[in-house]
Specification:
This protein is of the alpha+beta class. It folds into 5 domains: 65 residues; 212 residues, no CATH class; 44 residues, no CATH class; 119 residues, Virus Head Decoration Protein, Chain: A (Beta Barrel); 49 residues, no CATH class. The strands form 10 sheets. The protein has a 5-stranded mixed β-barrel. A 4-stranded antiparallel β-sheet has the order 1-7-3-4, covered by helices on one side. Strands 8-9-10-11 form a 4-stranded mixed β-sheet, with no helix packed on it. α2 crosses α5, α2 packs across α6 and α3 runs antiparallel to α4. It is elongated, with a radius of gyration of 61 Å.
Length: 611
Amino acid sequence: MVSDKVFTADGTSKIYSIDFNIISDNHCNVYIDNVLQSRTIYDIINNAIVFEDAPTANASLIIQVGTTPDDLLTNPTDAGIVASNITDVNTVADNITDLQFVANNMAEVLLADDNAAAAAASAAAAALSEAATALDAAATAADLILTNADVVATNADVAQTALDVIATAADVVTTNTNVATTNADVLLTNADAVATAADRVQTGLDVITTAADRAQTALDVISTNADVVSTNADVVTTNANVLLTNADAIATAADRVQTGLDVIAAAASASAAAASAVSAQASLDAIEGSYLGVQASDPTLDLNGDAITIGDWYYNSTSNITRIYDGTVWQNGAVSTSDFVSKLGDTMTGVLIAPTFEGNFDGAFTDLSKNVSGGTLLKGTPVYQSGTSGNAMEVQMADASNAATMPAVGVLAQDLDDDEEGDIIHFGNIQGVDTSSFNEGDVIYVAVGGGFTNVQPTGEGNLLQNLGRVKKVHDSNGGGFVMGAGRANATPNLNDGNIFIGNASNQAVSVDLSTVALSPTGDGSGLTGIDALPSQTGHAGKYLGTDGTDASWNTLDTDANSTTKGLYEHANTIAANYTIATGNNALTAGPITINTGVSVSIPTGSTWVIA
């Protein structure tokens, strides 16, 4: 007897318990989505299936357990069902013929697809016919058992031995029923490959299921009538030898059933092979309808002779590129990466055009130029634009002493012969020039007479243009950073004694300060809002004073404090050191106090009188 337990996997559980005994590994089959699983992926522990990895969520999990004759022997009263109801094997034999009907239907369907498949189905039908014959023989043997069953009442002692044989036969029937169920699952699996025969295959599987249900019903009847066998135990003992003989017949019939099932399995395998061949051919047709192989030019038909459709592709042996049809035209599907710029860093030899640039910049901003100077211009030469030639700026050498050639718009990125085109650097790094006469960090200017220098040009006739700074000193591989191209200094050079003054055109011009008239008379005396100085003639050593209205020169009064000039007053205490000047005398009205620590020094030849 076979019992099923059905689960739906949740994707995480590895343990699935069942409520009936699992006798041994050989009496348990596990199916996931109707596919029999290998014993290596799970263990059987205490009537539970324990998986190594949890089955996929929502997968259908079926645990199938068979009951052996040993189970029947454990409860001898149940074993009597085998003897009294073995006639139900006839029901299995009757219904197994339905398998022949399934095979015949499969043969009809497969004949329309492939002769080899039809032959396989016919073989399956023949095998089923042979199986039905074998089961008829088993039914005959079972009838003989029933004929002798009435005599078993006096043979109780021998009944146990007979029960062993009956149990073995029942086990064979159960095993073959399981095999039939397994083969039915195989037929279900292969039914997907035979799409046009799906309805008839399903009908055959329903018949197989009905036969299995009838077999299960027979086994249930056997269990129900176990008490009858116990009651007739004496008759079993009397006819033990007969039962043994008939048991051999049952075993022989069972072998024939197994042979028939083997034939069915072989037929199912042949059907699967035929279905696989049909599927493979369909896949090949699909590939040939999409991949068009290697061709020298764009095709218009696929390999099946049909018009090309969107998604068709082939390898172009002329351009060595895979091309894909977009429904209108052929497009390149894959190109060589040899011309790609690596995101990890790369060197470009052409022009990169982009709407914006973000990130750190290490290089130079350049523009196309053309040398029209009439001679060769060397790399690093500051140049000005004198015109335009196509997409190139016409350039010549800039000269700080010639305003017509200033300012420089950039420096040459390479040597240029006359009428040759090349790049000029407006902003950024320049490398590969002679900077041996400079120092790192020097400011570079456009030089007087052309070229570049680290000495700022002088004189109002020379313009100033700061081009950049020296980064590396070397006689051939020196470098710097250009950052002042395109404009001269806002404040030009100014000669000594000159000032900038606005002219009638509202422009700053340089003039000699001495030529600038501050008043109509040149001395400023007539300037409105500005007081004129009094004449300085004859007033040496005097200071300028004012009475609040007019300025005048005054003599410094160096006399001591006075009271209307009739007498002189002075302090009666000398609080600080004092030295009479050499060649002078001093007079003090006494008495006079000299503070402690304070001294008066009288030089030789001088006199200090205290009166």
